[in-house]
Amino acid sequence: MTSALHRTALHDMHLDAGAVLTEFAGWDMPLRYGSTIAEHHAVRRAAGLFDLSHMAEIEVSGDGAAAALDYALTGTPSAIDVGRARYSMLCAEDGGVLDDLVVYRLAATTFWVVANAGNAATVVAALTQRASGFAADVTDASGAWSLLAVQGPASARILTDLCPESGIDDLRYYSITSEHIADISVRIARTGYTGEDGFELFCSNDDATALWNLLDAAGAPLGLVPAGLGARDTLRLEAGMPLYGHELSLDVTPFDAGLGRVVHLGKTGDFVGRAALERAAAQTPHRVLVGLAGRPPRSPRADQSILDPATGDRIGTITSGAPSPTLEHPIAMGYVAAEHSPPGTDLIVDVRGHDVPVQVVPLPFYTRP
After folding, report:
1. What are the structural domain ranges in the chain?
2. What is the CATH number of domain 11-53+144-238?
3. Which of 68, 174, 177, 289 could make a disulfide contact with 85, Cβ separation 3.0–4.6 Å?
4. CA-closest candidate to residue 93, choices 292, 357, 272
């Protein structure tokens, strides 16, 4: 750990709770509080409480905010209703992915963009440049906000117990509302990155510890436990959700990643990367992101080579991999040559000099009941 790492408003509390901390995207973050596997199972069976305050929050406001975001992103933020959200991407001119993000519409002329921590500066700079021709202001609000998440099948019960008059249980997926929990002003979004029902809560840094304690106390009787980035990673992998720097990067387009649905080529007007993405949409990708299932004990890991079992030739690369606590066998995602991508295809992964058999399977690996 170095003094150069950013710390969330909950940093000292994590230390007091005995968390094992790790560097992530320039932040000193909880990796786990006890067992990553136990935290993973808690989210699948009850609930987990995460500190996600390393994420970036960017406000885009003004009469031209909707048009500016339509131009900046691959989606159509102008079509988002107030109180709703959409998953979208920020692409370069050549179609490569600069970041994947969630766009919330807080009001007719106010949007809330949540970006990955490691790409915060890139996203702020790109949005500022792309909004320059519109009546829109881009403000990096990250320093003022903390982000907590309650994820798992008990999450709605926990939030309802804390604010029973709010109608939280009726909040639609990918929606956001403003509420008070005790005397804390909170923006509550029904979103998440675990494959479970869940909520993400934005509050001021000054209120973060009090909000964490309220959530922890309300959730503990229902099985909620604090959870770190280790469980967050295995949960999102089981749910087939991409991680920037692994499944997504400047070297791939949304179509390579099987996420062409977030590219709205039919929307009115130009947007950054349109020409390149139109070309990508018209072609069969030469590489495809696939799910891979293996057998214990060896699990594929990021950057390992995927091989053709018939020839031994390298035909792809693992982007993420781990033993699946829920499914009880190794799982991975990776890019392979298109001809090796159909489900049921048998392949090999070079796991530290061992040829480990895997099979292409549909994504996601896990879907909640």
Report:
1. 11-53+144-238, 285-361
2. 3.30.1360.120
3. 174
4. 272
pLDDT in tens, 148-180: 999 999 999 999 999 998 889 999 999 999 999
CATH 3.20.20.20 is the classification of domain 285-361: no
pLDDT at 2: 47
Answering whether pTM is above 0.90, one says yes
Amino acid, single-letter form, for residue 137: D
Is the pLDDT at 3 greater than 70, yes or no? no
pLDDT computed for residue 1 by the predictor: 43
